[in-house]
Design goal:
single chain, 294 residues, alpha+beta, Heat Shock Protein 90, 2 domains, five-stranded mixed sheet, 6 helices, elongated
């Protein structure tokens, strides 16, 4: 019997070839997916950059508009304040002339009313001066130099000698560090804060006013502390508001602009202002200045 054997050629490398072809396919697919992902991420980043540039451009335009509005407002306040001085002087001058030349023809009530007019023109004049100071605090070009803050505070307190005459005032200045800032503007800061402390301790038998310092990481923190009338912390949000007063005009004279001026000046120096107080137990007003003012 003849037996036919059919030989079937089997390629022993076929499985490896199939695996290689499949691996190449999967590698290509993976590479394609990676490219798609990178393109998607790059597209998203480009879109984010585009949106960011658009927002920055809009923010720049809004900032310019805000600066223009502030400049116009300050110029308006400056102009109006100057224009108001002339009629105020006229009112005060004519009221004084009437009192001096016609006092005999006026009764006691008439003289009193004319003095009320003069007192109010003086208050209005003080308000105008404060508005001008507020305007200059935002517009004045700063000339930065190193300042002896201890000496500055002591010299300013000495300028209030007429306000402290006949009073017992204990004024102390700690060993506070020097600061980088504009001399004229920081002089105004201490003038307002020390002046407030002198005013609000007016009804104390012994007035205590302290100028001190607290260290911070990047800032020097200065403060003016007193044992005067203080304020209720629940009204703190009004403390630095323009024309805001936490005491009546009958209690303490003022226009409500002083702390707004302080806040604006300190803000221009890159610092901030805050306060603490308690009714009839005094107040402390803090302000910070950067240690390195660029």
């Amino acid at each position: 019997m003849l037996i036919n054997y059919t030989l079937i050629a089997v390629n022993p490398l076929a499985p490896l070839y199939t695996i290689f072809m499949n691996a190449e396919y999967f590698f290509g697919l993976l590479l394609f997916l990676l490219i798609v992902l990178m393109v998607a991420l790059l597209t998203e980043r480009i879109e984010k950059v585009r949106r960011l540039r658009t927002l920055n451009s809009e923010l720049t335009r809004e900032t310019v508009k805000l600066e223009d509005a502030n400049n116009e407002l300050e110029a308006f306040a400056y102009s109006v304040s100057h224009d108001l001085r002339v009629p105020l002087r006229a009112i005060d001058g004519f009221s004084r002339i009437v009192i001096e030349d016609y006092e005999k023809d006026l009764d006691e009530e008439g003289v009193r009313l004319l003095n009320v007019v003069r007192d109010n023109t003086k208050k209005m004049g003080q308000l105008i001066d404060d508005i001008l100071l507020l305007s200059r605090a935002g517009r004045q070009e700063m000339k930065i130099s190193e300042l002896d803050m201890s000496s500055l505070a002591k010299n300013i307190y000495a300028d209030f000698d007429q306000d402290t005459k006949g009073r017992t005032v204990i004024f102390s200045v700690d060993d506070i560090p020097r600061a980088m800032g504009d001399r004229a503007l920081l002089t105004q800061v201490f003038t307002n804060l020390i002046g407030n402390a002198i005013k609000f301790t007016g009804d104390k038998d012994i007035s205590k006013i302290e100028v001190g310092f607290k260290d911070a990481k990047d800032d020097n923190i200065y403060y003016v502390k007193d044992n005067g009338a203080g304020f209720d912390m629940k009204y703190y949000d009004k403390l630095f508001g323009l024309f805001q007063r936490l005491h009546t005009q009958e209690e303490f004279q003022g226009t409500g602009v002083g702390l707004s001026i302080v806040q604006r000046i300190v803000s221009r120096h890159g610092g901030r202002v805050w306060g603490e107080g308690e009714l009839d137990k005094g107040a402390t007003i803090y302000f910070s200045l950067p240690k390195n003012l660029d």
